[in-house]
């Protein structure tokens, strides 16, 4: 819930600042060297986690595994011919009616991959209010996740069923001393988002292979035991 509100706040700021920049002083509107350098450092962190996701998929040959069953709590995992999809969901229940779900929250990432490289990332932060019949959603598309730079990342935003933004490029967001929205979006949302799903993906892969080794070990011990009787 906090993540959705954070993204909504940042994107709302992206909209508002479009009309506010003209009212800033010349000094405030200039991008500082510190902000530019921070942005480059954040881009490098984003690239690092995208590369780790790519390396994990290739190392554990995840695209060739079709029977992954052990998953972390409230995590969904699926795959198609050219993607792996991960989703974390959470339900908010009615305070008065037992077992009645009021709100569904989810965050997801769709990793487009051929099993060796990652070509695109598509993330969604979504909240469905069943009582009010409304949906709020932010969709983030990174078309070049394994290349340094984030200017081509685009955001689309729906607030309570109303389209607010459609494919706004991150490069269009100014990074001034008064409104460092671009860096804030990278630092407080996108990096933690990628870090979270990298950890989930790695956990799924390691758990699967540990399970396979345990099965192999159990079978081997069973077969070895058979040599003790004639």
Q: What structural class do helix, strand and pairing data support?
A: alpha+beta
Cα-atom radius of gyration: 22 Å
Q: What is the number of beta strands?
A: 7
Terminal Cα separation, in Å? 64 Å
Mean pLDDT: 85
**H-E order:** HHHEEEEEEEH
* Sheet with most strands: strand arrangement: 1-2-3-4-5-6-7
Query: What is the molecular shape?
Result: globular
Assembly level = single chain
Fraction in helix? 40-55%
Explain what the structure shows.
The chain is an alpha+beta fold. The protein has one domain (2-18, 33-226). 42% of the residues lie in helices and 28% in strands. Strands 1-2-3-4-5-6-7 form a seven-stranded antiparallel β-sheet, with helices on one face. Helix 1 packs antiparallel against helix 4 and helix 3 packs parallel to helix 4. The longest helix has 46 residues, at 181-226. The protein is globular. The N and C termini lie far apart (64 Å). The relative contact order is 0.18.
List the SSEs and their pairings.
Blueprint: H1 2-20, H2 26-29, H3 33-59, E1 75-79, E2 83-93, E3 101-113, E4 118-129, E5 134-142, E6 154-159, E7 162-169, H4 181-226
Antiparallel strand pairs: 1-2, 2-3, 3-4, 4-5, 5-6, 6-7
Helix pairs in contact: 1-4, 3-4
Task: Please provide a brief summary of the model.
The protein is α+β, with helices and mostly antiparallel strands. It has 4 helices and 7 strands, in the order αααβββββββα.
What attributes characterize this protein structure?
single chain, 230 residues, alpha+beta
């Amino acid at each position: 819930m906090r993540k959705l509100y954070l993204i909504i706040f940042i994107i709302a700021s992206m909209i508002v600042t479009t009309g506010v920049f003209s009212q800033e002083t010349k000094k405030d509107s200039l991008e500082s060297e510190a902000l530019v350098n921070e942005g480059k450092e954040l881009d490098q962190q984003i690239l690092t986690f995208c590369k780790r996701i790519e390396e994990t998929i290739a190392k554990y040959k995840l695209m060739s595994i079709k029977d992954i069953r052990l998953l972390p709590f409230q995590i969904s995992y699926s795959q198609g011919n050219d993607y792996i999809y991960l989703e974390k969901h959470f339900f908010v229940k009615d305070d008065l009616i037992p077992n009645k779900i009021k709100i569904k929250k989810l965050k997801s990432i769709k990793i487009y991959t051929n099993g060796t490289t990652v070509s695109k990332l598509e993330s969604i932060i979504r909240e469905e209010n069943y009582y009010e019949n409304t949906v709020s959603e932010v969709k983030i598309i990174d078309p070049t996740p394994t290349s340094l730079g984030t200017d081509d990342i685009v955001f689309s935003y729906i607030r309570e069923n109303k389209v607010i933004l459609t494919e706004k490029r991150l490069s269009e967001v100014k990074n001034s001393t008064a409104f460092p929205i671009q860096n804030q979006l990278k630092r407080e949302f996108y990096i933690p988002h990628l870090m979270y799903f990298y950890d989930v993906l790695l956990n799924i892969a390691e758990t699967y292979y540990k399970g396979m080794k345990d099965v192999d070990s159990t079978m081997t011990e069973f077969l070895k035991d058979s040599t003790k009787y004639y």
